[in-house]
Design brief:
The complex is a heterodimer of chains A (321) and B (376). Chain A has eleven helices and 14 strands. With 321 residues, chain A is of the alpha/beta class. In chain A, the strands form three sheets. Chain A has a seven-stranded mixed sheet, sandwiched between helices. Chain B has a single domain (24-319, 336-346), classed as 3-Layer(aba) Sandwich (Rossmann fold), CATH 3.40.50. Classes of the chains: A alpha/beta (321), B alpha/beta (376).
Chain lengths: 321, 376
């Protein structure tokens, strides 16, 4: 066991994979000599060389498209989008080429796309997005979103070992803010939910950075027993874990950092409405970002992103229902 | 790097066919005849209401896919476009499976999951195209990137049309391949129209000239001369294997039918079609072979018999089970890379195993104790 930050855990997973599997190849903009915009691959070139830690042209469609080509001839490419927002330039290759390949012709596309996502630091409309729902709506792509250092490492190993395209949503705001014990060596975290804190009066369902917001908001909520369910994986979505929590707690608050409409949490709410209705003792409550681009100026950004206060207030209201 | 424009001989024949034996030249004719015959048969089946959706063919362009694919080795990899059926046939896809594909049968290459020539047999080293053109240029570039990283003497080839050159993925792939000097052959199939849009509304500069701007060779070849296309592809592959980087081959041809079955091509001047009809690639290859003493009629008859048998087999095949519609979205087992295709050119028989694309021992050494690379 070692104590690592979320970012160090991601770096450690990549380093372990590069050491153990020569098929693994890292591709991205400025990830080589510079070590990546967030320094996830700092020092990698010295150990693994610039072929395997590849500085690519500034071309996101190119990164995803060539990764697909390399994957179908036996490589295991791990692509870094410098910011998750830039995946819009590689959307077509991911959704139409990678995502549909196995269904159409039985050809596996084992690529991992790392997407540094999320706001909270005045990144503005093009460096703060949470685009995971785009890919939940696109068949053939798995989507995971760790909240802890241990899960960041274990989910990244599992993503790289997975024979399918996997979007790995790594939250930028957690990079250096979250620290934890991480087992040594290569281990896989399953693509399923985990109970971050057990409870019985109400459950807050979240993923990524919002797990921490949920934990903080409900740490001391007038003595109520509040469960926090960390989804960890959005595709596949762990419906059984969601329904278990709902059955235990009867009241549900779902938190998304993403824009509200058709967000991951909207799908969770739909699952509960379809399969967990009988367990509910109150309306399903959602807390999410307003449907606007994420603004730059701190007071505006704070007004848009779900805050500890907003989540706490939503829980209080629902507990009183 | 200067753009190299190959000058076809006055009659359109290549300057040399020193790399082709008579058997090879007959192979090329057979591939083109099979492509045209299968597509004609499929169009008939479409008009009978048996082919769902629409139908797209490559009438008049047979030489481009036949000639280029014929130059590719077993372990080379191909991303094939929708008017390039001959490439699939050369790699070894059976005519019955092609027709099964058009008919949406369970025996088609995609088992009914995709239609038309949107297929690639992964066991034969081919990846099926998507409709967003030219996405596959990047996929082929990525294959070539892997070959180069692993030090393998192999190359990737992909086809795309004149309209594709307007999209960003054309630029991204050309630039990427140029920057990394990758073993990839880009075959630009210039068939004069992107759906209804003529060349002068598509680009201000002939795209073949752009190759020089990306740092590699671009050349123009008569796309209706199958032996000339072969020769250009053969030389491009050799350059790629020798570390000379990518090649852009512009094969100039003509789409003799509409974009799809519904398209009456009103936007094409009749004289233009008539002019190109005189340059039909099959007629030209047949004339050459007759001169060489080949019984062309018997080749035609055997191709026709093959098509008839394939039609019977495809029509007797079952439709896919509706219950299977949600199967196979994800790979549940090990990711199995592309397999090797057929490579009938005689040149591969006489050369060293390396030159058909076999990996040199010691260079593929990837993942100790694991799966080193593609299964042979």
């Amino acid at each position: 066991m070692a104590t690592l930050t979320y970012l160090q855990a991601i770096s450690a997973a990549l380093r372990d994979e590069l050491r153990s599997d020569e098929r693994v190849l890292l591709m991205g903009e400025d990830i080589g000599v510079f070590g990546g915009a967030f320094k996830v691959t700092d020092g990698f070139v010295a150990e693994f060389g610039s072929d395997r830690v590849m500085d690519t042209p500034l071309a996101e469609s190119g990164i995803i498209g060539t990764a697909v080509g390399a994957a179908v001839v036996g490589m295991r490419p791990v692509c870094e989008m410098q910011f998750a927002d830039f995946i819009s330039c590689g959307f077509d290759q991911l959704v139409n080429v990678a995502g549909k390949m196995h269904y159409r012709q039985g050809l596996a596309v084992p690529i991992t796309v790392r997407l540094p996502s999320g706001g909270g630091f005045s990144g503005g409309p093009f460096h703060s997005q949470n685009p995971e729902a785009w890919f939940m709506h696109s068949p053939g792509i798995k989507v995971v979103a760790p909240s802890s250092a241990e899960d960041a490492k274990g989910l990244l190993h599992a993503a790289i070992h997975d024979p399918n395209p996997v979007c790995f949503m790594e939250h930028k705001h957690l990079y250096r803010r979250v620290k934890g014990e991480v087992p040594d060596g290569i281990f896989e975290t399953p693509f399923s939910a985990r109970v971050a804190r057990p409870g019985s009066d109400l459950v807050v369902i979240a993923y990524g950075a919002m797990v921490h917001t949920a934990l903080e908001a409900t740490e001391d909520l007038d003595g109520a027993s509040v469960e926090v369910l960390d989804l960890r994986s959005l595709v596949p979505l762990d419906e059984e874990a969601i329904l278990d929590s709902v059955e235990r707690c009867s009241k549900v608050v779902i938190v998304d950092e993403a824009n509200s409409t058709c967000a991951a949490g909207a799908q969770v709410a739909a699952v509960i409405a379809e399969r967990g209705f009988e367990s509910l003792d109150g309306p399903v409550v959602r807390v999410a970002a307003a449907d606007v681009p994420i603004p730059f100026s701190p007071p505006l950004e704070q007004a848009v992103l779900p805050s500890v206060d907003r989540v706490r207030e939503a829980c209080r209201e629902l507990l009183a229902y | 790097m200067a753009t190299d424009i190959a000058e076809p001989a006055a009659d359109g024949a290549p300057a040399t066919n020193a790399h082709l034996l008579l058997d090879d030249r007959i192979w090329l004719l057979r591939a083109m005849l099979l492509m045209r015959g299968l597509e004609e048969r499929a169009m008939t089946l479409y008009r009978q209401g048996k082919v769902p959706g629409s139908f797209y063919d490559g009438c008049g362009q047979e030489a481009v896919s036949a000639g280029a694919a014929f130059a590719m080795g077993r372990r080379d990899r191909l991303c094939i476009l929708h008017r390039d059926l001959a490439a699939h046939l050369i790699r070894g896809v059976s005519p019955a499976r092609v027709l099964g594909q058009y008919l949406g049968r369970d025996t088609g290459v995609t088992r009914g999951r995709d239609g038309n020539v949107h297929f690639g047999d992964r066991h034969l080293g081919c990846v099926g195209m998507v409709s967003m053109l030219p996405d596959m240029m990047l996929v082929a570039t990525g294959m070539a990137m892997a070959f180069k990283l692993r030090g393998e003497r192999r190359c990737a080839m992909t086809w795309f049309g004149d309209g594709s050159t307007s999209r960003g993925d054309f630029h991204e792939a050309m630039n990427w391949a140029g920057v990394q000097r990758l073993p990839v052959v880009f075959v630009l199939e210039n068939n004069q129209y992107a759906y209804s849009t003529p060349l002068d509304k598509q680009f201000a500069v002939d795209p073949v000239e752009r190759a020089a701007a990306y740092g590699f060779v671009g050349l123009t070849v008569d796309g209706n001369d199958v032996e000339a296309v072969f020769e250009a592809a053969r030389a491009a592959r050799e350059r790629a294997l020798d570390g000379g980087g990518p090649t852009l081959i512009e094969a100039v041809t003509m789409r003799m039918h509409g974009h799809a079955a519904h398209d009456d091509m009103k936007y094409v001047p009749k004289e233009q079609v008539e002019e190109w009809r005189k340059r039909d690639p099959i007629d030209r290859q047949e004339a050459r072979l007759r001169e060489a003493g080949v019984d062309v009629e018997s080749v035609r008859a055997s191709v026709q018999a093959e098509i008839d048998a394939a039609t019977e087999e495809a029509l007797a095949a079952p439709m896919p089970d509706p219950a299977s519609a949600v199967d196979g979205l994800f790979c549940e087992g090990e990711a199995e890379p592309l397999g090797d295709g057929q490579a009938p050119w005689s040149g591969f028989r006489s050369e060293q195993p390396d030159d058909s694309g076999t990996t040199r021992s010691g260079e593929a050494g990837l993942r100790a104790g694991g799966v080193p690379e593609e299964s042979v």
